[in-house]
Amino acid sequence: MRRVIVNTDAKNEADDQFAIVHALLSPTLDVRGLIPAHFGRHRSDRSMEESREEIDLLLRLMDLTGRVPVADGAAEPIPDESTPRDSPGARLIIEESKGPGTLYVAFLGPLTDMASAILLDPAIVERDVVVIWIGGVAYGGIDAAYPGLEFNLGNDIAAANVVFGSGITVWQVPSNVYSLVSVGYAELEEKIGGTSDLADYLIKQLVEWNATYHPEPIESRSLGDSPAIALMLYPRGAQSRTVPAPRFGREGHYLPGTGNPIRVVEAVDVRFLLEDMFAKIRRFGRQKEI
After folding, report:
1. Distances in Å between the alpha carbon of 92 and those of 30, 116, 282?
2. Is residue 67 pLDDT above 90, yes or no?
3. Is the pTM of this model over 0.90?
4. Which residues form the Inosine/uridine-preferring nucleoside hydrolase domain (predicted)?
5. Is residue 47 classed as helix, strand or coil in its secondary structure?
6. Using the 8-state DSSP alphabet, how is residue 83 labeled?
7. Does domain 2-289 have CATH number 3.90.245.10?
8. By Cβ atoms counted within 10 A, which residue in 112, 203, 224, 263 is the most buried?
9. What confidence tens digit (pLDDT) does each residue in 205-216 have?
10. Any idea where the domains of the chain sit in the sequence?
11. What are phi and psi of 129, to 5 degrees?
């Protein structure tokens, strides 16, 4: 089993929920903890707390309350590149980094808690830790869903600079890749609808989020956080290249950095990702009926 932690701004949008569930339903992933993350003050003054409430709801729907560690992350970005936001989530990352084998830490939102862990315990960068981050815009001038400041990066640019400049192993999934993991309402209904209360909630909250926040007619959504889970399930199931770690400017653009090598994911096996997730959610529903 691979030891993993999932750090998630779970109530920010409607895709984190699918990624969390996929990780928890995967028998080769030993989920050592879930860390609720903040997502700025765009829609709430208590974003981390709302992420915690969403994680707790998913665990109840999966009959996993009390069986998966949940450690609150920071409620705010780090104030600068030298000052951590100490939190139970950052401390969980530090402690698990001392365990046997590789620790994979997936960040589905800002990198606040990873940066804080590095600033609290600089020796963590020498341990066998892989940071998988959903964030940042495309490299090389590729047109992407985010022509400006990418959301996850924008919620803590200082944290991204700490992590990318630290020398720790980083796998980055930028916006031009994660935005292509799209599912339609009809597909969701046909693949998992009616199979369990969990499945119905996943569909319902996605449709409701779109209806509330999307500015134009739509019948689909990108499950942009799910590539992080696919990479943990099968690390070689992606096309990627190694680039020198950049720094991030105030507008989210790339600047020359330390040159530490990072892995930038350029494509993921979306067929495997979605079909594996749908199959596990359907199987969960069948097992609930027994």
Report:
1. 15, 11, 31
2. yes
3. yes
4. 4-241
5. helix
6. B
7. yes
8. 112
9. 999 999 999 989
10. 2-289
11. -125, 135
